[in-house]
Amino acid sequence: MNCPVCGTYLPDGALFCSACGSNLSAGAGVSGAPPAGAGAGIHIDADGRGSGRGYNFEILHGSAFALAVVQLQAEQSIQAEAGAMVSMSGHVELNSQMKGGLAGALKRAVGGETAFISTFTARGGKGEVTLAPSTPGDIAAIEMSNQIFYVQSSSYLAGDTSLTIDTRWGGAKSFFGGEGLFVLQVQGTGLLLVSSFGAIHRKKLGYGEKYVVDTGHLVAWEGHMPYNLRKAAASGWFRSLLSGEGIVAEFTGPGEILIQTRNLAAFAGVMKPFFPSQSSSGGVNLGKIFGE
């Protein structure tokens, strides 16, 4: 059956939508077939090159410091997360606006995203825009075909202007999780660029197969896949915290998940001892950082 609110494919008898949290107990408006594009998989260009509606793109510099180069035809556009631009041609016009108006901007801000989205348009001729995430890592160019994907808010980089992007409730995560309460729902046909902290690992699940992912390592997944959020250790919160894990997402196949090999929150925790606290009067101990 499908969630009547967001279209997510759910197991029969589900009382709540695992994606948007809608109450399904009444069962109104729920159909028995998966939404369009369900099970089609995540199509990533193997060579990092492709084309869309009036543009060509290429992913350069490997999986550590990836850069997306987008070549726009005259009067064509691409949209990106605010702050993602590295460079652009002189005649490319940048327009930043609140996506979805004030209400949409508030939802994005509550979800841990920037309130604005940037649109790049080539005026009077062809133009080039280069984009990159704020952390070292990879960029995956996904070709969507009438599909729904859910993307961790920090992993959305850019996409075709025809794609519909909305902020959705990501589930009842506790404060132990630390990864926020919202995800992006991306729907439609066209190019979607997602980024990762570290490399991107692909995991494909068979029918009924269950798989558990630390929420800090999620990048994106197919929108029809049911999932639930729970503590990592079945024996309780204390053992979960001792293991270094808090909240995890348990997915049920069929479907595909994109996983990042590094966790930004964990990395920040490792680096924290090397930087002064607010009460410290000294500077950063570079000797300690470099082991001297």
Q: End-to-end distance, in Å?
A: 60 Å
Decide which structural class fits the backbone.
Answer: mainly beta
* Approximate helicity band: under 10%
Oligomer: single chain
Look at the structure and give the mean pLDDT: 79
Number of helices: 4
Return the domain count: 2
CATH architecture of the largest domain: 4-Layer Sandwich
Assign the CATH superfamily of the largest domain: Mitochondrial biogenesis AIM24
Written account of the structure:
By secondary structure, this protein is mainly β. The protein has two domains: 1-33; 49-268, 4-Layer Sandwich (Double-stranded beta-helix), CATH 3.60.160.10. The protein is built from four helices and 18 strands. It has helices at 101-110, 237-242, 264-271, 286-289; strands spanning 49-52, 55-60, 67-72, 77-81, 85-88, 92-98, 116-122, 127-131, 139-152, 156-159, 164-169, 182-195, 200-205, 210-214, 218-222, 227-231, 247-252, 255-260. The strands form three sheets. Strands 4, 6, 7, 9, 10, 11, 12, 13, 15 and 18 form a ten-stranded antiparallel beta sheet that branches. Strands 1-2-3-8-5 form a five-stranded antiparallel beta sheet, with no helix packed on it. The longest helix is centred in the middle third of the chain and has 10 residues, at 101-110. It is globular. The model is unreliable at 26-34 and 172-180 (pLDDT under 50).
